[in-house]
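Consider this one:
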Amino acid sequence: MVKPSLPQPLPGAVGLSHLSAYDWEAADGVCGGSPHLHLVCTEAYVVTGGRGAVQTLSPDGYRDIPLEPGSVAWFTPGTVHRMVQGGDLRITVLMQNGGLPEAGDAVFTFPPEVLADPDRYAAAATLPPGTGPQTAAAARRRRDLAVEGYLALREALVAGDDGRYAEFQRAAARLVRAKVPNWRELWRAGALATAERTGAQLDALEAGEPAYLADATAYEAAPTRLGGFGMCGRRDEYNLPGTTLPYGGE
């Protein structure tokens, strides 16, 4: 039997990367990443070193969740999150629907006037390629703009006014609407296909015909991009066909 020419997705077709939180100080004196939300992907942080926190905004209000080695935090679609540096914070990120975040399933908390203009948003969100000083400066400007919008959202939410937060969610949905057909194809080829494959395996087991076990094998991978500028920090990622797309400069 011919083995697959491409690696199978990681378990559950999740995305995988490693992050070292930014140590740049923002306007509020806090060091950390660019606040943003995902539209259809739940994200998990598995802390592997250092200390810090993840600040979240959701219908639950504002939360500041401590992060330390061994702790895990995750947040569902629509939750604004900001990774905060407390000292050499390092995490492994597990992302639902591997490939979708790289295809645009994330919106920064830029101020409303930027969110209202797709061209202006794209110009603010896109970084130059590479990992040099020019890209670092652009990543920091992007972070600062996201923090500007985030602090206004947080202030309103803490004051009991959730209207601005709800409008941000609606603006984010408008920005990504045109990308949904592409996301749907990635989901069908990744997470959905993985779930359907499990269903077929259960059917085979129930029928007493586990012929699919003849395809058993193992895979390995190593990071293929080191030190890129991600949303939350410096990012090491894996280019796994069917799971994580090649780095495109975010």
Observations:
- Residues 180-206 form the longest helix (27 residues).
- The mean pLDDT is 91.
